[in-house]
Design goal:
Layout: E1 3-5, E2 12-14, H1 15-39, H2 46-62, H3 64-69, H4 73-103, H5 105-113, H6 122-132, H7 135-146, H8 151-158, H9 162-186
Antiparallel strand pairs: 1-2
Helix pairs in contact: 1-2, 1-4, 2-4, 7-9, 8-9
Length: 187
Amino acid sequence: MELYNRGKEGDIVTAREAFVEDCFEKYYDFLLKLCRRRVGNNLLYADLVDSCIQDTFLLVYQSYPDLLQHPNPRAWLARTCLNRLLPYAQLQRNRIGHEAFSLDAKDFVLSTFLVDSESLNLLPLLDEIHSLLTEREWLIFKDYFLEGISLADIAHRRQIHIGTVKAVLHTIRKKVRKKKRELLDNM
């Protein structure tokens, strides 16, 4: 094993370890910004981003001989990190998105119809939303916004594709926004 003296308090480390340290010092901030742009600068994703970056540097350690020969290590790091991030980001987005949104379903209804929480009576608001939606849309609305069920679970429960669930949720949001605009115009 080739040794490399970094000059830090007399520590002797391998060339592989020194290479990983150098990559970490050079590219950590770059990878952090790249990942945050991909998943949004949401604190819910902070642990996810850190885990993917750490996994990437573990792969740097494992792929040391190949990476030395790579013409563009920065591009390799970026692609590797994003590849590590993508499946986790999709799972987290589904899981966190629902949990966060199901916890804030009340806030969604309140903010949509501009109602203050002190005079809260959700039943008329939910009736208003129900009147806007088809039966299928209403069932998906309840599953997603009120019960906090994941997109995949809704698709399984309703025996439809996940893309259909996403499209229906998009339609629901459009209808609710349209109703909100109508209410604001009438004020």
